[in-house]
Each structure stands twice: as structure tokens, then as C-alpha cells.
Design brief:
single chain, Rossmann fold, rod-shaped, about 15% strand, 5-stranded mixed β-sheet
Length: about 425
């Protein structure tokens, strides 16, 4: 569906214009403040309704404005008063009005119809969302899954990094014993040695006491002759006992406790060494597991991205090489912001036509910024897509199909 004829009266700077465009590119020329922008605004107001209205869409000093747009299969008539109140009639070729006229127009008009170059000015994420909607792709479930995997991978990566730092804080010691020292067993050995030495000391003390007793008894023999026989027998008996104890004591060997005490003193250092190596080993295992989880999540993210790329390829972008991800749009593998001006222009126009499969009309307001090569590209795109581009441009060159002067078509029958 294309614009066959535009009639606009008292819209902004327009007094009255009647335009029948020819070809796929219609350049509206003229000097500044003559009404050329008002031509594009009139088309937008007629089709989009209040969303396209400027603050005061009616020409100064007039009460109402009227726009008639002939689309072939539909004739759109919109009247607007100075307060912005509008009356819309959408009729078929036979003149019979249709029900829900604005809904009919809304189904025809795309987001980029009235400013396809807006796509080039969008933020990367907004460009990606526009392209996704245009291609009818819903990645919300995949994006949610990817975000979850990304967040989990980030957390696992932090844990792996923390574990690696803990491992680095524990120096590796190849000479560290494999098993800790059993301090309790050494303590038992020490207690047994102390008890044995104590028993030996008691035996020595007993020997000393016995010898002292023997001397006392010998003294009593001298003093107590009448008890000599009895004391002599006792002395002999005591002597025999002393001799037996002497032989026993002579065979006694004390245990050297110094090595045992040294082992106990050094056991904590050895055990700390063993514990450090055990902790390092445990951390290395956890670190390896964390790295494995990070890799698994990275693989999941890669699979999700591959799925999205496959869906995008099957959907078919408006321009070959155009793709998008969660960060923005790419063209031939590079960020769209790095594309040339010609590539951006081609892509924006292709997006505009793709967004309007029924109404093949685009409005370009800042056409004065386009050089001759860009104008040629716009014309080629309009021909390739069998669309219709209305482009505003300052000047009155030969490329202008319509020139607006003082709110009218210059040289037209309405002057």
C-alpha cells in the first residue's frame, strides 16, 4: 500500500497543498520555514493520530486543519481543531466508511515509519530490542536462563578465585610428613618413663634407708650386748636383704626422657605442617571443582548464544549480516556503532520497510544531512523494497520533486 495523493489544508505552516508523488522517492524541497516539514507532519498526523500531533497542529489564525491521504485501497480523512480534537474517517474506494478507523491505521503503521533513521540513533540495547520485535523473536526464556547461568558463573568464578588465593597463602612443602605426630601416645610413653624412674628412685631411697638401719643396728650391738644374738641375726638378715636390693639397684637403668620431651615440643610444629598440607590439598580439590563448574556454565552460555544465533539466522534479518545479542546490534560481526554511515543508512531504511509490510511508506525529516551518494542509496533502497520514501531537504535543486513555498506547492495549480 502506497500514498497516491496527499491533500492538506491549514496544517502547521501549510496553507493548502495537493501532492501526487511519482516514483519511489519523493524529495520535498524548499527553504527554511516554508512548510516542507509540515508536509511530512501532515502524513504522520493523518496516519498515526494524536501520537504524531505537535502541540498546535493547526495553522495560526485558523480553527481547523484537514488532511486527506489516498492510499488506493483506503482513503484517510482527518480533521483537527486548534485544541487537538480530531475526527477521523477511513473509507474504502467506494467511499463507505469503515469501523474502528484508528485501529485499521495502527495495524498499518510501524514504529519506524515516521523516522526510520531513529534506529541509527538508538542506544545499543534499544536497537537490539527493536530488531528482536521486528523479527518476531522472543528470547526472554533464553535470556533469563543465560542471565542465571552468567550470575552463577560469576559467583563460582569468585569462589574459585578466593580458593586460589587461599591455596597461594599456604606454601607447598614437599618435605612435610604425611601423618601428624601422635602427641597423646608420646605423652603416655613419657608418663610410663616417669613412673619407672620414680620407682627406681624409691628403690634407691629404700637401699639408703636399709643401709642406715644397718649402721644403727651395728651401733646397738655394741651398746646392747645382751641382745647381741637377736640383733646379730637381725643384722645378718638385714645385710642379706640389702645385698639383694643392691644387686637389684645395680641392674636398674634410668630412661632418658629428654628425647621424648623434645619430640613432644616439636610435635605441634610438625602437626601444623601436616595440617597445612591437608588443608592445601582440600582447597585444591575445591578449586578444581569450582573451575569445572565455571567451565560448565561457560559452555551453557555458549550453547544459549548458539541457539539464539540459529533462531536469528532462521528468522532472516532485514539486512544480511545483521544480528543482535543482549548488549546490542552487530553488523557483519562488528558493533553497529562501528558501521559506516552508508551501512547505517541502508540498515535503518531496511528496518523501516520491514516494520511496515503493508504500508510501504517512510518519512525522512533530516534529509539535508544526506550527501548525493546517500540520496542515491535511499532511492536504490526504495526501488529494491518497492517502497515509498518522502524526504525533506533544504533547497530547490533538481532532485526535489516538490518544492514548498509560503505553505503551498511552488508552481502548483493551488498557488
Amino acid at each position: 500500500m502506497r500514498l497516491i495523493r496527499l491533500q492538506a489544508k491549514d496544517v502547521l505552516r501549510l496553507e493548502a497543498v495537493d501532492i501526487t508523488p511519482e516514483g519511489n522517492l519523493c524529495i520535498i524541497g524548499g527553504q527554511n520555514a516554508q512548510g516542507k516539514s509540515s508536509v511530512l507532519t501532515a502524513i504522520a498526523c493523518a496516519l498515526a493520530g494524536k501520537s504524531a500531533f505537535p502541540d498546535v497542529p493547526v495553522r495560526r489564525g485558523k480553527k481547523t486543519a484537514e488532511i486527506v491521504v489516498d492510499l488506493g485501497d483506503l482513503i484517510v480523512t482527518r480533521q483537527i481543531d486548534a485544541k487537538g480534537t480530531t475526527r477521523l474517517v477511513v473509507a474504502g474506494p467506494d467511499g463507505a466508511p469503515k469501523r474502528s478507523p484508528q485501529s485499521i491505521l495502527d495495524a498499518l503503521v510501524g514504529r519506524l515509519t515516521f523516522d526510520p533513521l531513529e534506529f541509527s540513533r538508538m542506544q545499543p540495547k534499544a536497537q537490539a530490542e527493536t530488531l528482536r520485535e521486528l523479527m518476531g523473536l522472543d528470547f526472554s526464556a533464553l535470556d533469563a536462563k543465560r542471565d542465571a547461568a552468567y550470575e552463577q558463573r560469576r559467583d563460582e568464578g569468585r569462589e574459585a578465585k578466593a580458593l586460589a588465593a587461599q591455596i597461594d597463602a599456604i606454601p607447598g612443602d614437599p618435605d612435610a610428613p604425611a601423618e601428624p605426630v601422635d602427641v597423646a601416645a608420646l605423652a603416655d610413653t613419657l608418663n610410663a618413663a616417669v613412673e619407672r624412674n620414680h620407682a627406681n628412685e624409691q628403690a634407691r631411697n629404700e637401699l639408703t634407708a636399709t643401709r642406715q638401719q644397718h649402721r644403727v643396728l651395728l651401733g646397738k650391738i655394741v651398746d646392747l650386748r645382751d641382745e647381741a644374738d637377736r640383733l646379730d641375726a637381725m643384722a645378718a638378715e638385714s645385710f642379706a636383704a640389702g645385698k639383694k636390693l643392691a644387686a637389684h639397684v645395680a641392674a636398674l637403668e634410668d630412661v632418658d626422657t629428654a628425647p621424648i620431651r623434645e619430640q613432644i615440643a616439636g610435635a605441634e610444629a610438625v602437626n601444623a605442617q601436616v595440617r597445612a598440607q591437608v588443608e592445601r590439598g582440600n582447597l585444591e580439590v575445591k578449586h578444581a571443582e569450582a573451575k569445572a563448574r565455571v567451565q560448565k556454565l561457560a559452555d551453557e552460555i555458549e550453547r544459549i548464544d548458539a541457539t539464539k544465533a540459529d533462531l536469528l539466522a532462521k528468522a532472516g534479518p532485514p539486512v544480511p549480516g545483521l544480528a543482535f545479542d543482549e548488549t546490542g546490534v552487530t553488523l557483519n560481526g562488528l558493533p553497529f556503532s562501528q558501521a559506516s554511515d552508508a551501512e547505517k543508512l541502508r540498515t535503518s531504511i531496511a528496518m523501516g520497510f520491514a516494520a511496515n509490510p503493508k504500508l510501504r511508506i517512510l518519512l525522512i525529516r533530516d534529509g539535508s544531512l544526506l550527501d548525493d551518494e546517500s540520496l542515491k542509496l535511499v532511492a536504490e533502497m526504495a526501488d529494491e523494497r518497492d517502497g515509498q520514501v518522502f524526504l525533506e531537504r533544504v533547497g530547490e535543486g533538481d532532485e526535489c520533486q516538490v518544492i514548498i513555498e509560503d505553505g503551498r506547492v511552488k508552481g502548483g495549480s493551488d498557488e
